[in-house]
Amino acid sequence: MNEVTPIESPEGRPARVRKPDWIRVRAPTSKGFNETRKLMRDLNLNTVCEEAACPNIGECWTKKHATVMILGDVCTRACAFCNVKTGMPRIVDTKEPQHVADAAAQMGLEHIVITSVDRDDLADGGASQFVKVIEALRRTTPKTTIEILTPDFRNKHEAAVEAIVTARPDVYNHNLETVPRLYPTIRPGARYYASLRLLEMVKRLDPSIFTKSGIMLGLGEERLEVHQVMDDMRSADVDFLTMGQYLQPTPRHTKVIDFVTPKAFDAYAAIARAKGFLQVASSPLTRSSYHAGEDFAQMRAAREAKLARQAAR
Ligand code: SF4
Known about the structure:
The protein is 39% helix and 18% strand. The protein contains eleven helices and 14 strands. The protein binds iron/sulfur cluster. Iron/sulfur cluster (SF4) binds next to α2 and α3.
């Protein structure tokens, strides 16, 4: 791991942290980028790409790959790492499910990722909106594979997860975000073991749905704690692990403790594969939805190969 390098201000105070070269990304300026932005605005859709200030937005939007964030742009939680606004959300947009499906159709998406803000104010945590989005996508673009990235549905996760699993997304993603020791400071509104149980429940209800989860590195976690999270995920039968570098979105957010080198990300990936994940994405710029379509195709092929090997025994 690399310690962060503070850049000194003229007064001699540390002003900001210098990012290592492997974090730098190109400015988003392409024609594809502008077309993606216009489509999202025309359909009144929010994206986590913008709200979370994702460093990959230039690359992803140029390729017409955006992660739609449903249920508004205001979250009822205030996680220390997240750039999404916190407050009292607006009423649910009933046209949103069809707008998401229209966006998928117009962009010709083979694979779509849908996420949401936390909606602790809603009786079902927003689960029914996920179901409506999945149904609208199946009607409008039946060939598009669907990946959802949900909140933890605190205190209502059983009913919420059951409803969503019944709608049969292809991939169910729920991020653990960090190691359990850091939850009180990084993810204070959530519980590590509740999130783990959610992932385990998806698999128990429908083993054909791929499960996926991710953590950010660089928040002060220890190597063995990361290994333990991998073991916990495997015990919940999670198929796909993502690991990426945490980046501080604004000075108000929790600081980067260290920049994990690309080599260390590769070493984590090798350990994760040895622990039995079907698919692993691990690099400084990896995010839950980065290259999600390509990774989904590889994961599906890996499962088919595994089943074929088992049948041949
Ligand atoms: S990695 Fe995900 S959140 Fe980031 S720009 Fe790409 S699609 Fe959007």
